[in-house]
Write a structure and sequence with these properties.
291 residues; alpha+beta; Arc Repressor Mutant, subunit A; Endonuclease, Chain A; 2 domains; eight-stranded mixed beta sheet; 10 helices; 13 strands
């Protein structure tokens, strides 16, 4: 006889002040997915994993003593007190003047504003220091290095890093840009502004060719573009990854897993043989397009 065991992720522990007892509450996948999205956003704004857990716990369950938070989230009391002090310094929680001392979360929208403004201030400060930092770097004695082009590669992880690299190689393109985007990535390319960059007036002297799968989603976005050279592929190659080639010199190849539904990384390289192989593949697909 098999026993059905509930996964820990589907259970949350809440404290009932009226009864003075802890309650275990089952959550469904909808709210859990929303919480996961919020956790990732807060983490990207500079909060650690446990800072995110404590903030969300207070924001969703109301004011609590440090000991209650520690027990509910299975954190050591010392770490809990330290995180609470740090969150309070950052304006994300407040202390309630009662005995015993309790803590309450800053409303979520206001907390987001605080984190975003803090991030902007750090970026502005770094931008102001950029020139002085570059001057200091250039003033350093230059070590002897071998001249000549090196064939290298770089692994990039995360949406932001991949988008920055795509923008970089696109901005540096001088003669040609070849892009194959799968139906899984065309939505992100459109909303990130990457597709718009392909049709900039500044690229009128650059050969820009866009190729994508023939499906309703791709058709919807391609019809919104004013790109002259855009075609649909009927390739039998399953799960062909998205890639971008510029000037026969650089390649950005997206790497996906979970049946192509989750982007995890990208490979950038100037390795000549790899660049030529992907260009040959692109041209083969281009010449067998659906107009």
């Amino acid at each position: 006889m098999e026993l059905s065991v509930e996964k820990p992720e589907s259970i949350i522990k809440l404290y009932d002040e009226n009864s003075g007892l802890w309650r275990f509450v089952r959550t469904d996948k909808g709210p859990a997915k929303c919480i996961e999205t919020i956790e990732k956003a807060l983490h990207r704004l500079g909060l650690s994993k446990n800072e995110v857990r404590i903030y969300i716990y207070l924001a969703r369950t109301g004011e609590h003593k440090a000991s209650e938070i520690s027990e509910a989230l299975s954190l050591h009391r010392t770490e809990t007190y330290r995180i609470l002090r740090d969150l309070e310094k950052r304006g994300l929680i407040s202390s309630v003047f009662e005995k015993p001392l309790k803590f309450i979360a800053t409303p979520f929208e206001k907390a987001l504003d605080t984190l975003i403004q803090t991030k902007k201030m750090k970026i502005n400060l770094l931008e102001k220091r950029k020139k002085s930092l570059v001057d200091i770097w250039l003033s350093l004695p230059k070590p002897e290095t071998e001249n000549g082009r090196k064939e290298v590669f770089q692994i990039l992880e995360g949406e932001e890093q991949i988008s920055l690299k795509a923008d970089e190689i696109l901005d540096n393109a001088k003669k040609e840009v070849l892009v194959f985007t799968s139906e899984h990535d065309i939505t992100n390319f459109y909303h990130s502004g990457l597709l718009d960059k392909l049709e900039k007036p500044s690229r009128k002297n650059i050969n820009v060719q866009l190729l994508t799968n023939y499906c309703p989603k791709s058709c919807f976005f391609i019809e919104k573009l004013k790109l002259k050279k855009a075609r649909y592929s009927l390739s039998d190659v399953e799960e062909l990854p998205t890639f971008m080639l510029t000037d026969d010199e650089q390649l950005l190849l997206l790497i996906r897993k979970n049946d192509g539904k989750k982007k995890i990384a990208a490979l950038w390289t100037n390795y000549d043989a790899f660049v030529k192989a992907l260009k040959a593949l692109f041209l083969e697909l281009w010449n067998n397009e659906v107009n």
